[in-house]
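Q: Could you fold this chain for me?
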Amino acid sequence: MGTRIEDITAVLWKAAGTFRGSIDAANYKDFVLSMLFLKYLNDTYKEQIRDLEVKYNGNQVRIERAKQNLPIVLDETQRFDYLYDNRFDVKIGSLINAALQGIEDGNSGLRGVFRSINFNSEAMLGNPQQKCTKLRTLLEDFRPLCLEPSQIEHEEGKDSAFIVGDAYEYMIGEFASEAGKKAGSFFTPAMVSELMARLTAPRIGESIYDPTCGSASLLIRTALQSGDLHKVAIYGQEMNGSSWSMARMNLFIHGIHVDSGDIAWGDSLSNPMHLDSDGNLKQFDVIVANMPFSLDKWAEGFNPGGQQDGETATDKKFAMRPELDKYHRFDWGVPPASKGDWAFLLHMIYSLRSNGRMAAVVPHGVLFRGAAEGRIRQAIIDRNLLDAVIGLPENLFYGTSIPACILIFKKNRPTEDILFIDASGKDADGNSRYKKDKNQNRLEEKHVNAIFEAYQAREDIERFAHVASLDEIKKNEYNLNIPRYVDTFEEEELVDIEEVQENIARLKNEIAEVEAQMEGYLKELGL
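A: Sure. Below is the predicted structure, expressed as structure tokens.
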């Protein structure tokens, strides 16, 4: 019997238990997922070497030559098996770190992938004795798990690597659930990713970009929508080092061997890393993002020297201006310093090709806040870039409990109307448009299908969808608050005053009878 996805997730849960209680899930996920990745590399490489030995009948010269053409190369001290054999070594943390560094040095496609993890950190893992115990236990947790490709059970037509990748994705979601508010930076719920992938509909040969890619879950799901994720170009940028590492591992496990520059590490606003040969922003066919909500101080990267606008300390401090951005992303307006939502949206719009489509998760404030944001919103609508506004249920994302929405942008649209969909409540029959769970609400397949079908139909649906003309938008002063366009008001049942009064009178009579009865009992008792 081969290795099933249930076997992989069981080991991951066991490994999580090694750290649970002593380290936050937002941190111990790095140790567990990095060890899974190391075990995957170890077992894959071991099977490839065994295949070469059979192919070349033990001829070491030819085997050594063929090794150089393998997707990965591991020295003896870089293998999981070596680390397991040395698990009682008091320097086991240093041995693991050295193995990870060696893997990076020997495999250009994995350069920097482990830079955010330190298996020798006493701050994370405790004093030397505690640290050694945890790492030894972690190695023992993974030892029974066989991740050799030929031993992994998978459906016909599906690569074995995807089983490992699915398990990796599953655990990212579970760690996000445990991490709570700390998880918003690295995970987009699977069905939200699926919805965004369908809405943007990438095709083979196109490029896909996520400027805040987290663990790359959204990127992978979107690429899969094309029908062959190996025939689309994938790009991303992530500022959080831990999430960036997860993204690189996640893509590699799924068989997507991108260059380290394709998934870049840095601030996509002040330091976008994806540029064309002329130094301008690279443009993409499809852009998806679950960006940080209302990021405070988003423009600080444009002022690395800490200069102030005034000459004295009491003068107004640094204020972002359009001319400070050499890519001209803020010529239509500069978002407020305390809310970076439109800064990310403008970056994505300027990174979109002439036939491009874009889906972004945003807080509802983006739809109606005034001042600079209102002016930007008007500029976007007047240029006919906004295609749809889709309201989502509250408590759907791990980083926040507030309701969010998906904005769909398209360039060169054939129409000027905007589609509004409200998927946050109930349908005309009183059925909820989402699954209400104990800790986290979620969308199911039927809910995603309903939203996507309404998007494709692009027509009015009672209590669900409305196609608003540009004139209607203007009459609302470019306010996009969904209740202005989709009426989900539920009338309360009329109260029959006469019936209520009759009930009150009846209850009063019943109370009077009981009180009289009670008084009689008390007299009998002499009280």
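A (continued): Residues 5-183 form a domain with the Ferritin fold (CATH 1.20.1260.30).
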